[in-house]
Amino acid sequence: MLGPVRIATWNVNSVLAREPRMLEWLERVAPDVVCLQETKCDDAAFPRAGVEALGYEVAAHGEGRWNGVALLSRVGIDDVRRGLPSDPGFPTPDVREARAVSATCGGVRVWSVYVPNGREPGHEHYAYKLAWFDALRDAVAAELPGPLAVMGDFNVAPTDADVWDPKAFTHSTHVTPPERGALAALRDLGLGDVVPRALKYDIPFTYWDYRAGMFHKNLGMRIDLVYASEPVRTRVTDAWIDREARKGKGASDHAPVVVELSDES
DNA sequence: ATGTCCACAACATGTGGA
């Protein structure tokens, strides 16, 4: 089977609310593999028919009201795994949220992840966020080396340049040294940040709050990331943010990140 | 002046999360 040449990640903020926009987007962009986050529906409710009609196979891992991740692939979807083996759980270890699903798609191990938000530094949700990152690192490490990409809403801005104003984040999550350290720990495994082009403005933001005209003013954050292993990175020919998908009525508050890959061999 | 959007419980509008 041929490998994927266009892979994408998109926090859709409810796959049911987003289905019309998502189907339009799949037709327009025609990605081979898509990682979805915040699907907000259980697996039985996932709107499979529309995406299957476009030629995609679906691996969903959802739970109902919150969270939820999924993979769409038209280059095969094998060895699907849901969750993380050492998931810390929240609020107690027995409660495991639907935040990770992985599969092998056309020879590439693809992860769709929705990292916990953390609420605020010092909150128990913040400790959960860091523990969840540790569990992700351990699960990914077990699958390396090899072509692999961890894609999704990491809820961390890698650098101060990845938020609209660092001063607005002085007592906030998403920018703290421990959170950025969790990204560094993934890079220490051999993964690298595939930084997309912004298409408009200089900074490749992927998320803009719905409130206060943040998108219009381009006050955003780059928190949707693609962390790829070396065999994938060497194939990257382009990466870009589809801000068109963030415009207008019925948009998610996140824009998709699209990565173009050269053909294998 | 916490601005919007989403799901849920419940059937009006409040709540929690982002």
TrEMBL record:
Organism: Motilibacter peucedani
Record protein name field: Exodeoxyribonuclease-3
GO molecular function terms attached to this record: DNA binding; double-stranded DNA 3'-5' DNA exonuclease activity; endonuclease activity; metal ion binding
Family recorded in the similarity comment: Belongs to the DNA repair enzymes AP/ExoA family.
One BP term from GO: DNA repair
Cofactor or coenzyme needed: Mg(2+); Mn(2+)
Site entry: Interaction with DNA substrate: H254
Pfam families, alphabetized: Exo_endo_phos (PF03372)
Annotated binding of Mg(2+), by residue: N11, E38, D153, N155, D253, H254
Marked site (Important for catalytic activity) residue numbers: D224
Cofactor binding note from Swiss-Prot or TrEMBL: Probably binds two magnesium or manganese ions per subunit.
